[in-house]
Amino acid sequence: MTQSSRYSAVAIALHWVIALAIGFMIWLGWNMDGNEARYQLHKSVGITILLLTVARIVWRLINRPPPLPAGMPAYERAASHFVHIAFYTLLIVMPLSGWLLVSTSYDFDVPTVLYGQVSWPDLPGVGPLSNETGHGIIEFVHSKLAWVMIGLVALHVAGAIKHEVSSEEGVLKRMLPGLFGKADAPSPPPSGFFIAFGAAIALFLLIAFVPPLFSGSSQASSSAQDSPAQSSGIEPNWNVDYDASSIQFSGTHENARFEGGFSDWTADIQFDKDALDTSAVKVTVRTASASTGKKLYTDSLKSGEWLNPSDYPEAVVSLTDFKATANGYTAEATLTLKENSVSFPFNFTLTEEGDQTRMTGEAQLERKPLDLGQKSDPGADWVSETIDINVDVLASPRT
Q1: Whether the Cβ atoms of residue 367 and residue 374 lie closer than 8 Å to each other
Q2: Distance CA 62, CA 378 (A)
Q3: Torsion 58-59-60-61 (CA) sign
């Protein structure tokens, strides 16, 4: 059976989707400085190109491409094969080099979240390259590969146009979608769709979801070993209703307000408004439970320069020196986080709700004394230096 001169519909779709993605990536690369959304989109599209290229290569191995025109000179055939091989190589190497680039960032630890939804891990084992020299070399190579890609695109387009307008049999219509250039001979139906795209999907799932499962279990184990149960030295006389209580934080990022909270914390409360001098509170917060309304922010909080729960699974707040004020109460609060301790006033009010009491309080913390975000944003150019803390606790007296 004579083979058709046109590519299959799947090959055509992959070709144009990847081509458009490459053009968009080049534009993003030139227009993303200082723009977090474009920076994240650049990384997302790069990983998408990598996965689509895997599908395209598998598809090509299963479905033989149409032959080149019979009248094409040997040197042009060789040039065409070279450009195709170079393209496939770059379509793998460029996303990998970009992935390596963000994985070796030593002064700007921003996680990768694909399209704002899926956490994408760093490449493992790249620690020795995470320095100014190593990162600089990778950045240089990645940027120059972009120019190589632009050159190959120009050669590819020029070659296609040349063969289309010359006296030879054109090649452009072989890859045009739609009704352009009907097949001149029937071909066996293409096969391997599920194999090609299954390989890409399997790779995505393996990278995006398996590492967090392993790291999550090891982190939980590490936390259990590093944080044995210890007595707070407090004799609690209140039971906290955790379902009706919360610890929230808020601030600004790029002048836009963000809010978040901790979902896992415990409080030992020894409080008597008639015996303030003997009152004391200890709150233990699991730092890995921090979350916000935006996945990128949540993942950032779990990085080493922010809360770093893998090394510091808990933060502890102690309240002492309680005093009554005209508007409620105040206490001296001491927060210990990542081996740093800061003290600040904590003002709160108490409201009776039947047989329960609701405490609402607030405080403000500075990031710098707590060593939060001091590598990537020491001058608070992105994230506000001051973080607002709001606490709402519903408790009932122990009987």
Answers
A1: yes
A2: 53
A3: positive
